[in-house]
Amino acid sequence: MEEKVLIVKYGEIAMRGNNRKLFVNRLVDSIRKNIDEYGDFYVVKEQGRLIVEARGETKAEFDTIIPRVLCIFGILGVAPGIKVTDQSIDNIKEASLKHMKEFFGDKEQSFKVLTKRSNKQYPIVSNEVSAIVGEHIFENMDNLSVDVHNPDVVLTIELRNDAYIYSHYIMGYGGLPYGSSGKAVALLSGGIDSPVAAWLMAKRGVEVSAVYFHSPPYTGERAKQKVEDLARIVSRFTGGMKLYVVHFTELQLYLLESVPEDKLTIFLKRAMMKVAEKIALKEHADGLVTGDSVGQVASQTMQGLNAISAVCNMPVLRPLAGMDKQEIIDIARKIGTFETSILPYEDCCTIFVAKHPETRPKTSVINKIESRLERIDEILEKAFEEMELIEI
Ligand code: ATP
Ligand code: MG
User: Fold this and answer.
1) Could you tell me if residue 178 is inside a domain?
2) Which of 5, 55, 96, 178 could form a disulfide with 40 if both were Cys (CB 3.0 to 4.6 A apart)?
3) How far, in Å, is the centroid of ligand 1 from the Cα of 347?
4) What is the pLDDT of residue 12?
């Protein structure tokens, strides 16, 4: 018996120990959830692999579901291939030839066969299986030549509980199953950086909720819509996301009249962190995530980051800290947020920005000035109480 399947590889090293079973089950659930609407698919656990099979009326056309599987964190890659239940060498020969004919019908190419024999009971050793199958394909397909050193195509045969045959391996993102590393709240602006930061932490298995600080009428509905759109794009990888929208106009106007202009951004960012931390406590999350990159702008110097983080009691994860802008942009393009991020809608920091912002704020000085801001707690409390929740 042979059938078309999708072979799913996941990261083994990170999945050692007791968590392994939990991780694998999470992956199975995520795959099921992501492909359910495309037909009657079934996910089977094989040693070190997950196998997606099509049942009933569902034709085994995997093209539509491959992108939905690849965007699941923890998955290293997928290979569309064939599963052979009766692993006699004749069956493997025929299934391999069928697969090669389907994928490389009349294209002139070189190939080799690579056999991996996990099932040590199998009566023929790997090299011999490769040789037998390779010869069979070579004799039956005029367009293919053999090249064992530098082939265009590698046909892989995995001998496990069943045999699996494939020639295309498509890489996923790796990482850890979403939700397996706790929770954090990501500060999501409409820029290029913060969606990438949120995505990177989600990739490491951290369940991410987002918060956006909105300052109408200085920031318009379209700016808010843009953040919502960005959260939706990141959600393709996470299966959903909570987006909190906190109104910050009153706070910004208050800071504008109360603090030295060159330190405005520092106070604003501190206020954002305080509210984000309150949200994190409400969400039972253990950290915050920002898109800061060291040296990128005035507030992202070491002293600036220090003065901002000083108000937080939980870790502030800054996955972009050591990245150059181009590296961040490359990821933004890869995950699909870039085009949305560059839409030209104002953000709250660009409106209230100082001409010559302080680049080396002293935390002690900032603390002192802030302690004199009598209304700040009350304003932040109100903003927190009135925040809006959008379930994405
Ligand atoms: P981004 O590209 O993410 O907007 P940026 O390069 O514009 O970042 P800043 O404006 O200094 O840098 O913001 C630094 C970080 O602070 C952002 O990455 C984001 O995590 C957070 N942040 C800034 N503005 C907002 C906002 N209006 N709402 C939520 N978070 C914000
Ligand atoms: Mg920004």
Assistant:
1) no
2) 55
3) 9
4) 67
